[in-house]
Amino acid sequence: MNGSTPHTPGLGSLPHEPYLATLVAGSPRKARFVLEDLLNQGHSVAAILEDVLTRAMESIGDLWQEGLLTVAQEHLASAMTEAQLAWLAPLLPVHASSSSLILLAGTPGELHGLGLRMLADVLSADGWRVLNLGSSVPEDDLVELVARRRPDVVGLSTALTTHLRDTRSIAAKLHALPDPPVVLLGGAAYLGNEDLAKRVGADLYASNAPQALELLRPMLERGLVAEDTNTDADVRPRDLALPDLRQFETASAARSVGVARLDMQGRILAANAAFERLAGGAVVGLPLESLVADAQRALVRKLVTGARPSWSDTFLGFAQDEEMVPVDRAARVGRVGGEVVVVIEPTTAEADRVNEGLLALVRDLVETQRSLETKTTELKAALDEVRSARLLLRKVQGILPICMACGRVRDDDDRHWVTMREYIAHTDAIALSHTYCPTCAASGPSE
Amino acid sequence: MTEPVPTLDVSLRPEHVAAAAIATDRFYAEIPEIAERYGARGREYAEHDHAYIFAWAVDAVAFDTPELFERNALWLHSVLTSRGFPHAWFVHTLELVQLVAVEQGLLSEADAARVVGDVIPRLPAMS
Hints:
The complex is a heterodimer.
Chain A: H1 17-25, H2 28-40, H3 45-65, H4 71-88, E1 101-106, H5 114-126, E2 129-132, H6 139-149, E3 153-157, H7 164-175, E4 182-186, H8 194-200, E5 204-205, H9 209-225, H10 242-252, E6 258-262, E7 268-271, H11 273-279, H12 294-305, E8 314-316, E9 330-336, E10 339-344, H13 348-397, E11 409-411, E12 416-418, H14 420-425, H15 438-443
Parallel strand pairs in A: 1-2, 1-3, 3-4, 4-5
Antiparallel strand pairs in A: 6-7, 6-10, 8-9, 9-10, 11-12
Chain B: H1 14-30, H2 33-62, H3 66-81, H4 87-103, H5 109-117
């Protein structure tokens, strides 16, 4: 069977149609704008995942079913939604950190991995350590891994009813293990029918991610008590694909995502400006461990120096001390090309604050520019005035009224008409120096 | 039908695939126009879809949940008729599945009637 499967209706109240329209149009950028708008309106990430992304993908399935979309368009919509998840998931508020481990998998033959991934993200934010194996996991491999890792819960997602027999077989094998996990079943194949899920082998059944969170919370809280008993072997990789990190790194120049590279001892080799801003100051050369809260240090040490070269659990953000700004957000540790990398995403409020700050700065700059332009214009006008006055002055200074009969000149100091000698004698700029001209000198001094 | 014929799911049992081949043969013999209309690829599709229909019917009985068959049958009916497959041909598909499932020992006559036969009158006549 292709793509679409029967589904239970969405639960939420947020409109999913605008996002759906971007999926149908195949416009990832517009899809992002729609989701950012919802965040800016104050809607939670969890609500957006459940009400918008999930419901929109269900509608995509319906449109394919009705022959209105091709398989290629349906796949594009899935890929676009996965890409949106990559930046939305780190914005989920992290409520706790627990030793409780859940292993998620799609039953053999399952090609639908988006729901699993979404569930993995919300569980991780809720405090669970999540091992997401993705879609279509072979039965024996899955049971063997569960026996080795001994998770508290195994969540199996089944979209197609033809996979229920395999799910029943897996559930039976899991229940037969010496330390059996709780088996959580979910997916469209159950048609919302809890009794059917129980017949297949469910200890717990959830028809959607919020319901799964609620059902699992008591187990999570037990894990919180046992946090200090973690061992290195308990460190579980988080299901964050490598390309996600590259997206983060690429985006880090333009966005406010913090990215830092660590050496193998967990010391920060390099960090982008956003990382240092989020951490509250210069961090290069510091051990990552020194930036986090006391309660998180052991976990961070294990994440950074752990043997597994893959994504680790989320840990809570940076601690507050004299120099550091308190940061309460998710951060992730992983490895790329042998390097340990930390990625932190600012909260929406922080991003807003940064944007508001930048906006205020731009406004100030514009106002300063306008003010400078006004003053420059005024100065130019004043300069022109001065120039005109100077010209006039020169002109005025160069005209001296002289009587054509007696040769007296007009004195501007109310002396009115005076001899040229008197005029010059009263002009400050000119002083008379007594001497002889060459002709007079030749004829001898007069009496 | 320009999309490639999907490969069969690993979860489908050989007996479902064998029954699908029998039902498809019979369908093509009784309605020759289908070969003219859909060609060789259409036949591959038909076998593929028949295999699933048998699996749904068997699973619905195994899990004592007739809705498993009903929901899937209605879904496939919608997929096919929206792409121009005649409603009457789909009805006949289910009639053949009901017969062949009993003949091949996949379902009892009562179960076949309860799970498959009961759905046929509820299919919306879309084309």
